[in-house]
Amino acid sequence: MPPGSPEKNAMEPFVVDVGNGDLVSGLKSFPLKPEDTRRSSKGTPLIVCLHGSSYSARYFDAHEHYSIRNISAQLSIPVIAINRPGYQQTPELGRTTNTGSDTHLQNEALWLHRLVLPMLWRAYGPPLGATSIVLMGHGIGGAVALITSSLSCTDTPAERTYPLAGLILTGMGIRQVMELNEDAMRNEPPFDANGQPIYQRWNLGPKTKLMLNSALGQSPLETIKAHETISCPGLTSETLDFNHPDNYPRYWRSMAAQIDVPIMYFLADMDLLWDASIERITDFTSAFLSAPRVESGILRGAGHCIELSWLGPCWYLRCAGFATCCAVEKVTLDGFKDGSFTPPMERTSLSTVVERNSEVSEA
User: Any coiled-coil ranges, and where (predicted)?
Assistant: First the structure.
């Protein structure tokens, strides 16, 4: 392969300036060409994926047989997996106090909502035949997707810069299986003496067993081998926001109540991080008071990282079906005519986005 080209059957890496000098990097799968966007479907989603802590966009493209790219290509659905701030070529955002509304996850959600998603929509939505965006988040990426969805749903019609149609969540919940040490969290600094972010580095052997249930045979050898290459250090600041009882666990319910698009939420029955009981799942989904519907349940025979399990391809297919349903519903029910979103009069050209040189390998 020529230098700088993506691996065969892999998603294509990108780096884009989103404005104000901020960069976002990630992976993309665009099965349709801009000039070939006539669809038999009434609606097409642009699926935007957000990875969890200590992973990157490659989480959604771990192996050629366990990649969201396959469903993207088969169903002609455009997909973008973002490297969240502080991961790979996406720079860290400014530091926060992790108190009140000034927390890591809320700051990241604002960045997505105000800069990244509007740019991605203008550049890759209508030009590729998409009619709306569906956010898909795993773990801490799911928390960011939830907050971002709340921001989108509470914007006035005149303020909306992208059409959100649905939200997919997994790898997160109400109660963690392992008891957290609150005192240790309070004393753990997110930044070093020079103000640089501190990263948590996992021992990959135990991490693979914890995330993939590899010792229980619940993940294929392909993703077990790939797990080391798609893993990376995780930001301490984001885990402190996500886990500390005074932060995300305190404020997420009020935000969930504001989301007025369909939700799909599943946990794996053998998730070693989260309590996947029916009671806990019901408690979590009950927070989405404004959603027109919430699809939820338990996937049997998988660990925390459903996408890397034997069920990975099935899960991606389910996500694509849900996302397409959300997109079709949005077009059918409101047709962009009720003032909730006004599409551009003319399609934006892909040539208006200048992509930077990106790394082929994000390991």
Answer: none
